[in-house]
């Protein structure tokens, strides 16, 4: 883990309220596991706390994140021009660990796609993606993904299955019977709860990336804890013990 000076090389709209930020780091992040994240300094002197973002892409000294503008930090980030300096702390947290010989099913909800995209690239054509979006525009986030079979759902019914992505997965899950499936997911907590209910009868292995508000991102402040089923030490730090957990360890 490093705190690295960087300069913005691109900060462009992808679709809807989503943007892609690329930065040139003074030195490489080093080895990155899919699902790990960085704490980004927001280039605005009134914003003190850094913000966590999944590592969307990392190659040499180039880091890419994809983000949705939701509040003052991401709004300030969206206004940052090329050449702006910022600090990048990372790579942080524990990422996904795909099991050998298993058949991966990846489930993403909305901006959760950013948290799972590096995993999809690593798994290549072995994975099937179930991508749930609010509407057609959000689905465009996955347009840069090649070689992965995608089942799409939209809540407004503008494309693919009309409804939520876990219902879509529920309709097709039988196709993976006997194939030793393993599920990886990133999305809102409601989606993770529905996923748990769907996978519970067969206890299909499932790793999920969870989101919590963070202050330090390094395990120091305990501001990001979530409840788990561990009886001796139930509260785990999302930034340190996560953000990826086994779905069966969480108290959702
Ligand atoms: C490990 C991790 C990885 C993430 N990866 C990405 C990513 O790749 N792309 C992306 O767009 N976002 C990602 N997020 C969420 C991102 O960090 C927040 O959207 C961002 O910090 C909001 O900052 P803000 O100042 O714009 O919003 P604020 O003004 O702080 O808040 C605006 C709204 O967003 C909600 N919010 C803020 N932070 C979070 C959070 N961490 N989780 C859930 N809700 C939150 C607030 O409750 C509020 O409703 C990630 C979060 C975590 C913990
Ligand atoms: S954000 Fe400080 S411990 Fe996780």
Topology:
Elements: E1 2-15, E2 18-25, E3 37-40, E4 51-54, E5 57-59, E6 62-68, H1 72-78, E7 85-92, E8 103-109, H2 112-123, E9 128-133, H3 136-139, E10 149-154, E11 161-162, H4 165-172, E12 181-186, H5 189-199, E13 206-209, E14 225-227, E15 235-237, E16 244-246
The chain binds flavin-adenine dinucleotide (FAD) and FE2/S2 (inorganic) cluster.
List keywords for this structure.
alpha/beta; single chain; binds flavin-adenine dinucleotide; Rossmann fold; 252 residues; 5 helices; 2 domains; seven-stranded mixed sheet; Elongation Factor Tu (Ef-tu), domain 3; seven-stranded antiparallel sheet; binds FE2/S2 (inorganic) cluster
Number of domains: 2
- Per the CATH scheme, the topology name of the largest domain is Rossmann fold
- Regions with little confidence, pLDDT below 50 for 5+ residues: none
Mean pLDDT: 95
Envelope shape: globular
Number of helices: 5
Return the structural class.
Answer: alpha/beta
Largest sheet: 7 strands, antiparallel
Which bin fits the share of residues in helices?
Answer: 10-25%
In angstroms, what separates the terminal alpha carbons? Answer: 30 Å
Beta fraction: 25-35%
**CATH superfamily name of the largest domain?**
Nucleotide-binding domain of ferredoxin-NADP reductase (FNR) module
Strand order of the largest sheet: 4-3-7-1-2-6-5
C-alpha-based Rg, rounded = 18 Å
């Amino acid at each position: 883990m490093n705190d690295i000076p960087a300069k913005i090389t691109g900060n462009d709209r992808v679709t809807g309220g989503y943007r892609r930020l690329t930065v040139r780091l003074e030195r490489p992040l080093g080895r990155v596991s899919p699902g790990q994240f960085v704490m980004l300094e927001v280039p605005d002197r009134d914003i003190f706390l850094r913000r966590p973002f999944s590592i969307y892409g990392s190659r040499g000294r180039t880091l890419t994140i994809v983000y949705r503008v939701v509040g003052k930090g991401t709004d300030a980030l969206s206004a940052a021009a090329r050449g702006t300096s910022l600090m990048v702390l990372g790579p942080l947290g524990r990422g996904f660990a795909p099991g050998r010989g298993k058949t991966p099913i990846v489930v993403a909800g909305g901006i959760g796609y950013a948290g799972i995209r590096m995993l999809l690239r690593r798994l290549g054509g072995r994975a099937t993606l179930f991508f749930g979006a609010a509407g057609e525009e959000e689905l465009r986030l996955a347009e840069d993904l090649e070689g992965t079979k995608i089942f799409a759902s939209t809540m407004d019914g503008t494309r693919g299955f009309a409804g939520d992505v876990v219902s879509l997965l529920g309709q097709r899950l039988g196709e993976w019977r006997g194939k030793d499936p393993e599920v990886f997911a990133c999305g809102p907590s409601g989606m993770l709860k529905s996923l748990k209910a769907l996978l519970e009868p067969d206890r299909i292995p499932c790793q999920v990336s969870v989101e919590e508000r963070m202050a330090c991102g390094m395990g120091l402040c305990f501001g990001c804890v979530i409840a788990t089923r561990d009886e001796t030490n139930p509260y785990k730090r999302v930034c340190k013990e996560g953000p990826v957990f086994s779905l069966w360890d969480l108290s959702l």
